[in-house]
Design a protein that fits this description.
The protein is built from four helices and five strands, in the order αααβαββββ. The chain is α+β, with helices and mostly antiparallel strands. The protein starts with a helix and ends with a strand. It has a single domain, classed as Nuclear Transport Factor 2, Chain: A, CATH 3.10.450. Strand 2 and strand 3 form a beta hairpin.
């Protein structure tokens, strides 16, 4: 009796390992949806809309700014982008070029270049600044079918 349970268990495990759900194909609709969420991200920054920016991120998103430790929680991301030290950054222009977009199943990637102009205000002083950067973003399809940024890393571009 014991050996038949072992054989049956092995057969069940072998079938369970070989019967997985099919991998979704990455489609033109996925590419359009990814471009749309990327556009929402840019538009949210231009509106100075914290909630909308955060809504483009997956719940477990990790940001990796050049030269900094990874930001692995929503709270860490908020503190980085919107510190509670009385400072405020306001994006004035945000020009983004998507240099590469691809995907496979429920994962996608964007390679991008950006040019920003923004103001940084703190303690009654406001500075006007510019930034040129390159980034690599990995997006993951969420359970509801929406694409969200899962990992994003960026650094300066000359």
């Amino acid at each position: 009796m014991g050996s038949s349970r072992i054989i049956f268990g092995f057969a069940f495990a072998a079938v369970a390992c070989t019967t997985s759900s099919p991998v979704r194909q990455f489609t033109a609709d996925d590419a359009r949806a990814i471009r749309a969420v990327d556009s929402l991200f840019v538009a949210a920054w231009l509106r100075d809309d914290t909630a909308a920016v955060m809504n483009t991120l997956a719940p477990d998103a990790v940001l990796m700014p050049a030269g900094q430790a990874p930001l692995a929680t929503s709270d860490a991301i908020r503190v980085y982008w919107w510190p509670s030290d009385g400072s405020h950054t306001r994006i004035l222009t945000f020009q983004r070029t998507i240099d590469e977009l691809g995907g496979d199943g429920d994962l996608a990637w964007l390679r991008r270049t950006d040019s920003l102009t923004f103001t940084y205000a703190k303690g009654g002083t406001t500075s006007s600044l510019t930034s040129r950067s390159m980034s690599l973003a990995i997006l993951r399809r969420q359970a509801d079918g929406a694409w969200r940024f899962s990992r994003v890393m960026w650094g300066p571009r000359k």
